[in-house]
Amino acid sequence: MQSFNFKLPTEIIFGRHAEDRVAEKLREYGASRIFIVYGGGSVVRSGLLSRIECQLTSNGLAFQVLGGVQPNPRVALVREGIRAAISFKANFILAVGGGSVIDSAKAIAHGTANPGTDIWDFWSGRAELKKTMPFGSVLTLAAAGSETSDSAVLTNEDTMRKVGLSSPLNRPVLAFMNPELTYTVPKKQLVCGIADILMHTLERYFSCDKEENAFTDRVAESLIKTVMEASHVAVKNQQDYDAMSEIMWCGSVSHSDFTGLGRRKDFSVHKLGHELSARFDATHGASLTALWGSWAKYVYKDDIARFAKFAERVFGITDGTDEERARLGIEMMVTYFQNLGLPTSLPELLDTKLNDSELYSLADLATNGDKKKLGTFHPLTRKDVLAIYKLANVK
Ligand code: NZQ
Ligand code: ZN
Fold this sequence. Notes:
Oligomer: single chain
Number of helices: 16
Bound molecules: 5,6-dihydroxy-NADP, zinc ion
Number of domains: 2
Number of strands: 8
CATH topology of the largest domain: Dehydroquinate synthase-like, alpha domain
Largest sheet: 6 strands, parallel
CATH architecture of the largest domain: Up-down Bundle
Distance between the termini: 40 Å
């Protein structure tokens, strides 16, 4: 097992009516001026936002609201939020929504605490994030895991770059998680969220480290199996509280780092997916399933035993050679995504095949002109990335 540092400072309030404790908990954290961030309106339509507003008002807490966060959240709205939060003198940023809203809230918190720095400078690496202010979320979609994660992903619409920032300062202080709030999520977002949760564990499970890491492996395998089982129930009945609870809790655990402690992460499929989201506004989870099978087929020979172990532990495949089990495990994972109705190729994701120059341009951007290798399992050069995009570019 590799050495690690793990600090999860997020207090999680989980279960029915969790959001009814927003005011009580915000007071406990010394919040008095709350800047609320939300998305395209689902929380207005469901009445969640007005319930939270009433709660804050009746508890004497001042608030201001900013809506309009889009999926693949844009930096322009974040800049607007920073200006508004500063002039409101906010001392807590509260996201009400999914990963895009939470990531925007994280960025607004960082920008408000660092008024002299353009927010994108932290994402582009031009500035180092050294301080922030408290923020948290009322989660309405189980997917990105941003409610506990140390990362936040923004899109710069001027440069068409989608970039993640990892920092301990990205860990929220509070997360309110009521699975009932996810009952209204559109089916497409539900399955994309399920895929993202699985991918956060897969991208940790397949890394270059060969040392034994038995407990973490079992945590990861168990999370994957739990999400798969719950997903079969949830897609038939999205109001199944138990299934939606498992998915929601696994979403937070999956990207908290707990499923990968003692092992380096890979996350190359995420980076390839971000290029597709930046260029085509592809939904995050779908961008990952469109690529994972091609990535796995391209790299599995680097560690056939690891893929064989995955096939055995997750899908119960015990017959055949390591190579046969490894290949079957990949096929079964791809079939699982297909059965959820998710794309497993670029033409399925984008409704069109990409031409060679488009694929090259994506590979070039992903690797910063072949100056950067992606992931750890098989550190990907531009040539590797291009080969994976090409593999995925067939129906
Ligand atoms: O905007 P509204 O109207 O709220 O609608 C949203 C949005 O259209 C809708 N939705 C959310 N909860 C709902 C609901 N509709 C009805 N009822 C509800 N209860 O779902 C749509 C998608 O929302 P979004 O927040 O974009 O989805 P998700 O949570 O999947 O977040 C995706 C973003 O997170 C990033 C992704 O790259 C993407 O930009 N990620 C963030 C990570 C992190 N911070 O740690 C890690 C992930 O790997 C990921 O990269
Ligand atoms: Zn993800």
